[in-house]
């Protein structure tokens, strides 16, 4: 046999190459002419091969460019486009509630399940039923009652931030990196709420503890994990440590967490755990209806890691965007400060965040920051197994991944005129979007008149929307943290933007699941004044 192979190797190689070409030719012909999506508009090359997406995700400009390419496709082909062999993308905010329904089972796409290398956690779980049980186990952590109870601990952490500013930054003339500052502050808030204990990232000199900062840099791996997941799954992440210093710090945090959780889960500690005064993520998981398989140590640790990763980058970015734009526009800054001074007469007595909700301009600033920071910016595909969908004249077969994205929604120029501008005033007076015309060229008519907030999709919507939010407007962890943080900063501190910072430090240049600015951005810098 070996002799036969050696003697005929040239012929065998040519034969294998011919077979591969025939297979590839058949595959492409099937995708272009016989696939259930063959009739949908879009570039033929994207319909023929997934490598088209890979090129924009990983190669072009160093990667993270596919979201921009999808937008370009829509400009050319209209609001519904086949963006790869298997998936449709829709650029029409009026259709968002159909793709992301609140009361229908939706699956996620296997392709994205290794995106964070934690495929068994709630966010990347594909089947709707399994996702539901995993989400239900975590949901009590984020109930309205629980977040209100946490109000004082959020305030306490934000007060510590203010203390550090007063004692280490104000009047020094040294620029403070507020991207780092917010990363440290939101990490302390999230860890406090999820694990019920302080973490002290705010105490690091110049807010530069590597862990909160590593979360952002880890997202650089996201596209490689998607496109080459089949390879990456074979390589333990620990092997990549020497090449990715941030990974070392991330995995170090994971090891500490694992040690802590395995201690909590020990049989001889059961009594202490159950009697503990503080309820943590682990209490919720242990008391839930999760299967023993879902309560195994590795999965519990991964779920905790996901919770931290999910909250840090998006909250940090929203706060950084808010500060940058407020400080670039004296009118916006003056109006915000005036409202805070009237609403909070004594800055040493900051109100509970529920009271901050009545400050209309503060909330408008937060909403505008959430809109422009966009949360997760990569498209979020959903799959309906139970039924086909109808978009205008198009029938979308059941089992088809369909996606929309926040880049298109939050920057839609019918819903948000002058979409690139930071205009908090667009949120004042409970504005509505009428259902009299489509929101994109050749789009469908909205089902009915909706409040403007309906179209801001930074937290996504439906059964798989952000867990850091609830259906009650504003009463949720993510928004509570943003309101308390912004109120403290602009009520208690004076500051100006450092000349090294520009809009390029907050504007999306790369889609790394979360939006990232130009590669050499060091963050937004501010000088705190007396
Ligand atoms: C400004 C702040 C935030 C924004 C804009 C945001 C945005 C989002 C978005 C768009 C998703 C959907 C992702 C997907 O479909 O794959 C999501 C999911 C999620 N978020 Fe957030 N998030 C924020 C803060 C937080 C916080 C503070 C936490 C908790 C500590 C959190 C926990 C989660 C979890 C657990 C999921 C997965 C939910 C599920 O799959 O059912 N997020 N978030």
UniProtKB/TrEMBL annotation:
The chain crosses the membrane at residues 12-34. The lineage of its organism: Eukaryota, Fungi, Dikarya, Ascomycota, Pezizomycotina. InterPro entries: Cyt_P450, Cyt_P450_E_grp-I, Cyt_P450_sf, Cytochrome_P450_monoxygenase. Belongs to the cytochrome P450 family. Heme binds at residue 466. The keyword Lipid biosynthesis does not apply. Keywords: Heme, Iron, Membrane, Metal-binding, Monooxygenase, Oxidoreductase, Transmembrane, Transmembrane helix. GO terms for molecular function: heme binding; iron ion binding; monooxygenase activity; oxidoreductase activity, acting on paired donors, with incorporation or reduction of molecular oxygen. It holds the Pfam family p450. This is Cytochrome P450. It comes from Hyaloscypha bicolor E.
